[in-house]
UniProtKB/TrEMBL annotation:
<dbReference type="InterPro" id="IPR011006">
    <property type="entry name" value="CheY-like_superfamily"/>
</dbReference>
<dbReference type="InterPro" id="IPR001789">
    <property type="entry name" value="Sig_transdc_resp-reg_receiver"/>
</dbReference>
<dbReference type="GO" id="GO:0052621">
    <property type="term" value="F:diguanylate cyclase activity"/>
</dbReference>
<dbReference type="InterPro" id="IPR000160">
    <property type="entry name" value="GGDEF_dom"/>
</dbReference>
<dbReference type="GO" id="GO:1902201">
    <property type="term" value="P:negative regulation of bacterial-type flagellum-dependent cell motility"/>
</dbReference>
<protein>
    <recommendedName>
        <fullName>diguanylate cyclase</fullName>
        <ecNumber>2.7.7.65</ecNumber>
    </recommendedName>
</protein>
<feature type="modified residue" description="4-aspartylphosphate">
    <location>
        <position position="54"/>
    </location>
</feature>
<dbReference type="InterPro" id="IPR050469">
    <property type="entry name" value="Diguanylate_Cyclase"/>
</dbReference>
<dbReference type="Pfam" id="PF00990">
    <property type="entry name" value="GGDEF"/>
</dbReference>
<dbReference type="GO" id="GO:0005886">
    <property type="term" value="C:plasma membrane"/>
</dbReference>
<feature type="domain" description="Response regulatory">
    <location>
        <begin position="3"/>
        <end position="117"/>
    </location>
</feature>
<dbReference type="GO" id="GO:0000160">
    <property type="term" value="P:phosphorelay signal transduction system"/>
</dbReference>
<feature type="modified residue" description="4-aspartylphosphate">
    <location>
        <position position="175"/>
    </location>
</feature>
<dbReference type="InterPro" id="IPR043128">
    <property type="entry name" value="Rev_trsase/Diguanyl_cyclase"/>
</dbReference>
<feature type="domain" description="Response regulatory">
    <location>
        <begin position="125"/>
        <end position="242"/>
    </location>
</feature>
<dbReference type="Pfam" id="PF00072">
    <property type="entry name" value="Response_reg"/>
</dbReference>
<keyword id="KW-0597">Phosphoprotein</keyword>
Length: 411
């Protein structure tokens, strides 16, 4: 849980911020009504994700609360009732993340949104590509304030090597003019690689060439900024691109996830399973298991469909936990598929453990004792559909011959 320090003399504002922070399951507010309370709280040595600080407090009327939180190296967001350009420059010079005026509930929602972004940024990797050491240090310092994990490169070739080494980098911020490989060539090389299609790319340039921005974006960049840029504009672009990427991922995920059980659906199985099969170059084959809950219809008939849905959810959770290294899919109804690339002996042992685990477990509030039947295809085939069909036939053979058993061959 991430603790957020709130220093605010208004009881109403404290209540609003407390409620909004508590609505986020990852955030916990620590509330202080004045500078003195904040000082005592900070002396306790808590590890704070961020601080939300009122600029003018009764016992700290000149922004001393901001200096206090920054002295503990806590990313600090300032709330202020009044705003002008002098205040803006002063706060940015101090090193605050941002400043937000107390205008409406939307302002407070912006505060919480930014705090949650900080939480996500702790595991978000950004690559800065810039041949100018001064410019690179400046961009990195801005990103570090917002808790990003930073990698640095001085040209496009070095950037590509880092992207190959650290494949979980989510964003590249690159200058245009660089030796060896410039930013324009870099984005073309990145978009040529399938695995980097979702990588966010923001181009930068200090030239006044109006065509350059469109040239970058047409080549695959997500955004473009002209240097010099304002602190706020830079972060707005970074945050908006990250949010857009997350929204696309959510939409894509929802298309691939079964809404009831929260495991992958049949559509994803066909798409991803074929890729797994195509990538398999080992001597052992990809293993396909078809798993079916025995006598599921009687649960719906005797306990109702709500109990049946709950059973499916709990069974799927058990599958995900037990086959955590494998692809788990709801194939349809009460039938599930597990695809594994692990060593066959290890996987078959895991399957045997699972059927025993199901026998000894109790499901739903009705304490249901159930069993399952499993069909396995471990032989090599050229397509996934053939393996699924074979595993499915063996599953129904297991059900016809008494249920609660595993059949892995046709003999």
């Amino acid at each position: 849980m991430n603790k957020v320090l709130v220093v605010e003399d208004s009881l109403t504002v404290r209540k609003i911020l407390s409620k909004l922070l508590e609505d986020n399951p990852y955030l916990t507010p620590i509330l202080c009504k004045d500078f003195a309370e904040a000082t005592q709280e900070l002396k306790k040595g808590h590890d704070f994700l961020a601080a939300i600080v009122d600029l003018n407090l009764p016992d700290a009327p000149n922004g001393e609360s901001v200096d206090l939180s920054l002295s503990y190296s806590i990313p600090t967001l300032v709330l202020t009732g009044n705003f002008d350009e002098f205040t803006r420059a002063q706060l940015l010079d101090l090193g605050v993340l941002d400043y937000i005026t107390k205008e409406s509930r939307y302002s407070y929602n912006q505060v919480i949104k930014l705090i949650d972004r900080l939480r996500k940024n702790l595991t978000t990797k950004v690559l800065v590509v810039e041949d100018s050491v001064t410019s690179r240090n400046y961009i990195c310092s801005l990103l570090k304030k917002f808790q990003f994990q930073i990698y640095e490169a001085s040209d496009g070739l070095e950037a590509l090597n880092l992207l190959a080494e650290h494949q979980d980098i989510r964003m590249v911020i690159s200058d245009h003019r660089m030796p060896n490989m410039d930013g324009y060539e870099l984005i073309k090389a990145i978009r040529h690689e399938r695995r980097m299609q979702d990588l966010i790319f923001i181009g930068l340039s200090g030239t006044n060439d109006g065509v350059l921005s469109s040239k970058f974006i047409k080549s695959g960049a997500n955004d473009f900024l002209s240097k010099p840029f304002y602190h706020e504009e830079f972060f707005c672009r970074v945050m908006q691109n990250l949010e857009a990427q997350e929204m696309i991922q959510t939409i894509r995920q929802s298309a691939n996830i079964d809404p009831l059980t929260q495991v992958y659906n049949r559509r994803y199985l066909i798409e991803q399973g074929e890729e797994i099969l195509a990538e398999d170059t080992s001597t052992s084959a990809v293993t396909v298991c078809m798993i079916d809950i025995d006598n599921f219809k009687s649960v719906n008939d005797n306990q109702g469909h709500k109990a049946g849905d709950m059973l499916l959810q709990e069974f799927a959770t058990l599958l995900k936990e037990h086959f955590s290294e494998d692809l788990v899919v709801r194939y349809g109804g009460e039938e599930f598929t597990v695809i594994s690339t692990r060593a066959l002996k290890e996987h078959l042992g895991n399957v045997s453990q699972f059927i025993n685990l199901v026998r000894s477990s109790r499901f739903t509030q009705h304490e249901l004792n159930i069993t399952c039947s499993i069909g396995i295809c471990a032989e090599k085939h050229t397509d996934l559909e053939t393996q699924i069909d074979i595993a499915d036939k063996r599953l129904y053979q297991a059900k016809r011959t008494g249920k609660d058993r595993i059949i892995a061959s046709d003999s």
